[in-house]
Design a protein that fits this description.
The protein is an alpha+beta fold and 321 residues long. It is built from nine helices and 13 strands. Helix content is 32%, strand content 27%. The strands form two sheets. Strands 8-10-7-11-9-12-13 form a seven-stranded mixed β-sheet, sandwiched between helices. Strands 1-2-3-6-4-5 form a six-stranded mixed β-sheet. The structure holds adenosine-5'-triphosphate, thiamin phosphate and magnesium ion (3 copies). Keywords: ATP-binding, Kinase, Magnesium, Metal-binding, Nucleotide-binding, Thiamine biosynthesis, Transferase.
């Protein structure tokens, strides 16, 4: 396998049997018609030991939190409310995970689930040889007609993000260097270990009724910007000075903020005036929205830093490159 994104394109069915599908493969989560004025939302993401987490970077409790959080984040990117979750756990035969540690992982999930009144309704238990794999499916819902798809960006739109990027990558580096003994109160370590999905932000955007393209930032700001630009057939001009981060003085700040990923903030595009309306709606609920650039005609993502304007590579995380 050379490129996960090319692989996904290669297995995408060219038609659906079910007329209720609103959006299948190609967005953060699938949308299909449900009952009583709702779209159902379904999404699955997996964490594999030593790929997404290690015993050195995360406790079992944090692994559970994160496994659910990354999925809730995809529901947030569709503007939805998470409702149910199912968990498949593949436990190493090597005995590297004790039963109590796995229960602790579930506690990390259920504490986060309680915040959203989500219920665990099923899953699967099986084995691997030597690494833990945990896969979570989340079902959510959003009001019928709300489609915050990657295809929604238009030239003239403003590009925005919902919060600082790069902290998770900085935290990962700290944890790889210092292990779990890195200061417990360290904000970067926490950004990496217990990311908070931006459900409230997604709900405000869904409630606004404004045409918006939305993605959560799992693979990195640049990569997600490319996902929206490609899906919408547009280009993007981003401004480094506008991109929020908490990495002042760090040599690797640009790399972490643009390509680090796993911050689970949302990146979106909406009309210029609509973005200002969204910003005000966010402000009324004590949240921030940061304009970071504009959508233009053409292809690619560009970054201006002072006088320099360069093409921003998709970069970011790709499981096979
Ligand atoms: N192996 C697969 N089989 C079927 N559909 C897939 C597969 N892998 C990904 N997809 C679909 O492809 C789209 C993009 O998936 P991707 O995992 O890149 O998005 P994401 O979950 O938002 O990002 P991330 O996994 O980086 O958090 C989604 O619609 C997803 O459901
Ligand atoms: C121990 C360890 N090493 C490296 C990383 C970095 N990392 C792994 S997967 C990923 C992208 C998101 O994954 P996906 O696309 O599957 O959602 C990133 C940035 C980590 N989290 N832990
Ligand atoms: Mg996503
Ligand atoms: Mg995924
Ligand atoms: Mg990914």
């Amino acid at each position: 396998m050379k490129d996960e994104f090319a692989f996904i394109r290669s297995i995408q069915p060219d038609r659906h049997h079910q007329p209720t599908v609103v959006a299948g493969i190609g967005d953060d989560a699938a949308l299909y018609d449900g009952e009583d004025g709702w779209h159902e939302i379904a999404t699955v993401d997996t964490l594999a030991e030593d790929i997404h987490f290690s015993r050195k970077t995360m406790t079992p409790y944090q692994t559970g939190h994160r496994a659910l959080a990354v999925n809730i984040s995809d529901i947030a990117a569709m503007g939805g409310r998470p409702v149910f979750y199912l968990v498949s756990v593949s436990v190493p035969k090597a005995g590297t995970w004790r039963e109590e540690e796995l229960q602790e992982m579930y506690r990390g999930m259920s504490d986060l689930a309680a915040k959203y009144e989500m219920d665990l309704i099923g899953g699967d238990t099986n084995a691997t040889y030597d690494k833990l794999v945990v896969s979570v499916t989340v079902i959510g819902r959003v009001e019928k007609g709300v489609k915050l798809l990657r295809t929604n960006a238009r030239p003239g739109d403003t590009v925005f993000v919902t919060g600082p990027v790069g902290s998770s990558a900085a935290g990962l580096q700290l944890l790889l260097d210092e292990g779990l003994e890195a200061e417990k109160e360290n904000k970067r370590a926490q950004a990496h270990q217990t990311p908070m999905p931006q459900v409230q932000a997604g709900r405000i955007i869904a409630g606004s009724g404004l045409r918006t393209a939305l993605n959560d930032i799992s693979d990195g700001l640049a990569s997600e910007a490319h996902e929206i630009a490609n899906a919408s057939g547009v280009a993007m001009e981003l401004e480094w000075a506008l991109i929020p981060h908490e990495l002042d003085g760090e040599e690797r700040q640009k790399e972490w903020a643009l390509f680090g990923g796993e911050d689970f903030q949302l990146i979106g595009c909406a009309g210029e005036n609509d973005t200002e309306k969204l910003r005000q709606l966010f402000e009324a609920e004590g949240l921030k929205l940061y304009p970071i650039g504009t959508v233009t005609e053409g292809t690619g993502v560009w970054l201006t830093d002072g006088k320099e304007r360069t093409r921003l590579d998709k970069g970011g995380y790709n499981h096979f490159t």
